[in-house]
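Tutorial sheet, problem 5. The two components below are modelled jointly, 987 residues in total.
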Amino acid sequence: MMAGPGRPAVALYRALLRLYPASFRSDYASELTRTFEENVRDRGRGAAMLTAVADVVPNAIAVHWEILVQDLRYTARTLNASRGFALAAVLVTALGVGANTATFSVADFVLVRPLPFKDPDRLVRLCEGPREGGGWGCMNELSPANYRDVATSTRSFEAWGAFTGGDVNLVSTGEPVRIAATRVSAQVFPILGVSPLVGRVFDSTSVADAASVVLSHGLWQSHFGGDDRIVGTTLRLDGTPYVVIGVMPASFRFPGEGVALWLPLSLREEDFLDRRDTYLQSIGRLKNGVSFEQGRAELSTVFARLARDYPETNEETGFSFFRQRDYVFPRNRLMLLALAGASLCMLVLTCANLANLLLARAAGRERELAVRAALGAGRDRLVRQMLTESVALALMGGVAGVLAAALAMPLLSSLVPPTLPIASEPGLDRRAFAFAALFSALTGLGFGLIPALRVGGVTGFSAMREGARGGARRQRLRTVLVAIEVAVSVMLLISSGLLIRAIVRVQAVDPGFVPDGVVTLRTALPTPRYDDPARRANFYDRVLTNVRALPGVEQAAYTSGLPMVLTGGIAGVAIPGQEVRSARREGVGIRFVSSQFFGALRIPLRRGRDVEDTDTPNRALVAVVSESFVQHYWPNTDPIGKTFEIRSQTRTVVGVVGDIKVRGLERTNEPQVYIPAKQPPDSGLGGLYIPKDLVIRAPRQGLAIVPAVREIVRQVDPEQPLSNVRMMAEVVGDQTATRTAQLRVLGALAILALLLAGVGIHGLLAFTVAQRSREIGVRLALGAQPSLVARMIVSDAARMAVLGVVPGLLGAYAAGRAMSALLFGVRPADPLTISAAAALCLATAVLGSVRPALRAARVDPMSALRAE
Amino acid sequence: MRDEPNSVDDLLPLPAATFHILLALAGGDQHGYAIIQDVEARTSGDLRLSAGTLYRSLARMVEQGLIVEVAKRRTTADDERRRYYRITPFGTAVARAEMRRLTELVRLARASGLTPETA
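Model answer (structure tokens):
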């Protein structure tokens, strides 16, 4: 031993040795320390210490590396020898990692990731809303006057910009097309802080910008071949020439996906006159250091003042204010969270399954491991080697999982809400790969650690003695793992079942019309070209007459908005002799329709008559109302012949029709008023109300009729594009598209979970039977009936299933409560769903036990006894 | 975690440290620090193996079957037990093969007119 002065140096050296792997340390630490002491003696403390540092660090790394290479080589050999096991492990991991990578990528994309703008956290959106607050998203658009007052009087914001949507007809070479456009005030681009790829954006100081246009990357590529010389060229939009001043980068989307170009929004003085004329949305940027809540507080003062100053229009006007980042339907958010939760369950299941696989394998290798331990392989070394094997398996599974995620991604794209300025389909990128790596590592450690520690814990001799009968404790552990698998499958099954019930319920909602056999398409007439109502009437008449003459067409009509597509379009009404009601609180849905509209959609006519071609401006002004309108304003009286005022005109009710689900299957709807398209209000029709959607009932032709319609429209107006060609049934189907997408993913997870649980039960029982063959042999030899033995195995399976079903039910109930907003009234404790799921699990368990039970019954007593 | 038995040729060429350790053990069993000193003396101080390199090499050589650990024994009364290493017949065969390889190299070098003096 060293004398006193060397002691601290030796302690330091011992600490340094911890860099070596434990197995190497336990072999050589004392030798190394001795050598170090001799070095200190021969060469002095300082020199010895310096050499030691330079010596230990690279050598420790080298030893770790050598062990890793050795373990990997060993892993490759053992896995090659048990390919079935390796394949199963990799596939199961791929499943867990794939599901998680895909759902977390989408959730991250939608809920977490910063938007592709400058300082996106400070971007806020403003609309009008109910005075008392509440509601979600943009409740009502802003009137220009209210917008201007907010923009000029608030101090918490750097800037405000206004925008409004609107499609335009683009006539370039070839077919005229209808494209999505947004009109933006000059402040919008600077607020978003994204520079154009080519050229420039709008400039508030330039008057000439009134006739300029900024293109999206997509339109630039698809229509102009990505030509750099596009700036300065002229486009004809809705018949008016615009000069291209810039092109935005491909990642730029505003206010959402699909906007093909941006036009300048310029407000004239007369636009500020009517505070009821609301058509703007606003985006603002909070000043640095000002919180969202401070911004909201200031806005509420401003809107309170506006309500005081302009009680006639603003008394009930409040505002809706939200972060741009948060513009995600609560339901979409919940769906994503539910899927993320399900994926995490899947990860737990994956780990449990793999741990079981590995435990079974470890049991088979116990003798080998014990022999190696006896030959001097340290416990640390064995654990490390087992972990290397499981992590290697997990990484292989991870790579396969990323492939699976890439395949699953398109399935999830309908979960991306259209309200966010992001791409509609998230790609797999670095973050996704980071997720995958993380999940793989978690899985590898999760399923590798338990068996590794178990094996490491078995001391050499006892394992050799026990042989393959190693311990009831492991059996218990494996039973718990199988129970976890069953619990997770029950949870996923019940959640999917509840969502299936919800979808069935939504789909069972009667929309109030019959969508089947109806083709819809849009001919949006551009202004100012079609400002004259007579010119429009001429267009509709000619198109409708010719379309109705096509073979197979039963009815055809124009409307200002398709149900479930145009969900707004609300107006206030005044009933003679009744108190004036607020348009905000008690609006009615207003639609301008041609004749045959009700027939084409099979909306039942309850009383009176349909809208007719003879309802022209010089005849009496009429309207058809829905049943709920009658219920609301004239309960229990005959409404025909009664009058009411809408949009400053008095109209006579001539007919009553059934209500339809204008806003969608899952929402409550305002009463509906239908006005003949040929009797527009004196003030003219805003863009929203000009009839544009053609509905054609042609049950035999379906979409095959579209070319003929296209030809008819071309003959009436060669510059008029057709857009939005769809079957009406598809429009209704969209109502459940997001739900269906979510369910498909969740359902797939649930089925896989069930299969895995079944395989888990089967594996465990098969193993048990093999282990207990001697005991079973003795029982049979002593006269036990084989059927009794088989029943014992089956009841083992049932016991495991019950062990998992009970916690699974509790978990499922909690999950069901958490997502009750998605359930459309189905109770989380829906007895049908729960009993079906539990029955399915039990059935799977029993099925999984059939083969092991048969094997147990066929154990030959003599050979089982001889084998020992 | 013993690798599959190696054939002699698989291990050639030997790392310098390994060859020197084999040479040191060819003369009899030795413990770690003695090997370092032996190598240093044999090379007139040109090669001083660091402790880390030595034990890492020893660990690998045990794995490869070139050497074995022999029962620990006391050198002097106050000394702790130390690990001694012994060259195996396989180790000797490998050392011989390495020697042949080096001799052949030297022969080739001489045949091409290269002499150490002109280096």
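Marking note: The beta strands of chain B are 30-31, 67-73, 82-87. Full credit if you identified this.
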